[in-house]
Prior knowledge:
Layout: E1 4-8, E2 18-22, E3 29-33, H1 50-69, H2 75-94
Antiparallel strand pairs: 1-2, 2-3
Amino acid sequence: MVDVVKSYKAKTFGDNELEAFIKENTSHYMLKWKKGGTVAPHLSGVYTSLTTVDTDVYNYINTEEAKDAIEPVDERVKAKAKTERRLAKQKAKLEGLVT
C-alpha cells in the first residue's frame, strides 16, 4: 500500500487527482494518478523535496489550463482571411495604389 503524502486536484484533471507519495525504501517523492494511468513525462521522475513536486505540478496545471483556454483557430477561417488579403492586394495593384 502506498501512503499518499499530498494530493493535487484541478479542473484540468476532471475528477482524477495527482498524488505525491514516497517511493518504497527511499526518501524520494513520485507522482501517480489516483485512478491510474500514465503521468505526463515531465512529472514522471523522482523528487527529493515536496516543494519541487509542488512547483512542477502547479506549472503543469497552469500550462494545461492555458492550453484549454486558447481557442483553436479553424483552418477554414485562416484560409479565408489569407485569400481576402491576397484579393485586396490584387485589387489595390489593379487600381494603381500599390506598385
